[in-house]
Every structure is written in structure tokens, then in C-alpha cells.
Amino acid sequence: MWLRYGVDLDLILVPIEDVLRGRTQLKCPYCGGELTAKKGNRKEHHFAHTNFTCREVANRSEREIPTLPLYNNFNICLTGKELQQIKTLWNRYGWKNKGIYESKINSIFIKEKLLEYNEYRLYGEYQFTKLGKIPVGALSLMLFNQVQESILWEKLQQLEKKVQVAYLDDASNFHECLWDLQIYRAELKKILSNTLYYLQIDTDKETFYKIGVTRREIQARVAEVQTDLVKHFSHVSIKVLGHWSHRGNVEKYFKYRYADYNCSIGSLTEYYKFDNPEDATAALRDLRRMKKKQLSEFEVDILAGKPSWIEQLIEEIEEERA
Ligand SMILES: [Zn+2]
Fold this sequence. Notes:
By secondary structure, the chain is an alpha+beta fold. It has helices at 55-58, 80-92, 107-111, 130-133, 141-168, 174-193, 218-229, 251-257, 277-288, 297-303, 309-321, and strands at 5-7, 13-15, 22-27, 34-38, 46-49, 115-117, 126-128, 195-203, 207-214, 236-244, 262-265, 268-272. The chain has a five-stranded antiparallel sheet, with helices on both faces. Helix 5 (141-168) runs antiparallel to helix 6. Zinc ion (ZN) is lined by residues 28, 30-31, 33, 49, 54, 56-57.
């Protein structure tokens, strides 16, 4: 797995974004080994063990990693071939809302709840679920939020449960489970801290759109974008079409869903160009239909950096014992 957090001397998690590349003073949360920050251009930025990679980091399957589900990976653990198969089903049946016969279906799609049985269909008894529309980029942003949020919370509960069980069993993997939970909460905090923004950029040549996230005031970010773009165009005018607090979770899915419209300006990415105005309007409507994010009690605690209920409970028990 990619390790994206190290711990400092106070045992506080530090994300890869907050350090410079090269050797660091940080340690691996799982084994205490020294870490080197790998921040090149080709691979996702991550920490590597300066010496030997520990078992906890090396031997993880995709599903065991404490990363946010449906955050920057939308293939729902399908192989390349399966992803192609489901895209074909979408293009033949799904987008026209036509039923699909079981004989045409790879059973993994039913097992993973990407397709569901509908007894009221006359021809072809299976149809796409909301989850199933995600790998093909067909689910609206509004519904994506619903689906992702419930999966995010489900995984949080699983990680909390694992900590609880490991603690009660006095298991050797207790600390591993605890770091998994803390890393996961740090990831949740990151997306909740971010504001999603969408800009319209009129230049002397063309109109572009830009999606992004920031933790600062939108206008500060707009000024930076302006600075980036004046190197490429003689006229640049930026309009903020919308911003959505606590919606850092949507940025990557937007990029996935609208990948066909993505264009680069020099080395700049995250820009979009629509061939016809209807497509641009549809993308904006897709964003604007998202409900305003209402933070739950749990989310407020995560944003405040409070420990999880299970960590608090364990701390209380340990204090009583001491
Ligand atoms: Zn390690």
C-alpha cells in the first residue's frame, strides 16, 4: 500500500503534503521505521521506508488499506477486463434504461451489487444500481454523494469495530488497527476541510472551466489561478460559478465523470473545455444540484480532530487501570 502519513515525535500523523521530499524525521506509524518522502512526478506522492518496508505496509490487499472508498478509485476493485465489460453493458443497455438478461452478465457485477434484479422488468431482469453507475461515470454528483457517504461511514464503523475487538482480545495487531482508524479519520478530515470550487475562465482564445478544492478563501485561490493563466493568454477573466463547503469528496469523481472534457493548458491540469454550450450547462447543473453539506455530529468531531469514541473509551479504561 502507499503510506501517506508518517508520525512525528508526539505521535501526531503528518500527511505527505506537509513535508518536503527526501529523508524526514517522521516514523512509520506501524513499525516505527524511518521514512523518506517520495514526491516525484510519476507516482502518487507517498512515504517509503528508508530501510526495509514493514510487513504491515507491504502485505496489504487493496481492500484492507485505510483509504477512503470511492474517493480516487472508481473501479470498485474490478479488473481492467471487468471494467471494460461493465462499460459495454452500460453503452448497450444501461444508458437507455434497458433491462439486461442474466446470461449477458459477469456474476461479479451482481456480487458487488453493481447490477440488481428487478422482477417488474419484462425484457432482461437486471438493471444498474446507483453504485454500478459509478465505474461508468454515469451517476450524478448529487447521488454520488449519497452513495459515497454511506460507504464512507460503513468503513469507519468497521475500522472502529476492529479496534474494539483487537483491544478486547488483547490482540497483537491492536496498534495496527488503531493507526488504521486514525489514518482513516485524518483522510475524512481532509475531505471535510476542503471547499470544492468551480470556475469559468474566459480568455482571448476560448472558455475553460476549472474544478478544484481549497482550504483557503476562494478569492485567494482565484488570484493564483489568474497568475497561472496569464502566462498562457493575453486576456483572462475568472468567474466563480459555485463553491461548496466540506465537499472535497467530490473533486476526483467530477474529474472521472468528465474526463472526456479534460484539457491541459501547458503543464496545468484540472481544466475542462466543452464542445457545445449544452454540455457545459449540464455539468454546472450537475454540480448545483448537490445538496448543501450538513455536518453530522461525528463529522464535526472529526473536523475538530477529536479521537473516535472507541479511542476515548479505551483511554478511560486504561486510566482506571492505572
Ligand atoms: Zn513500517
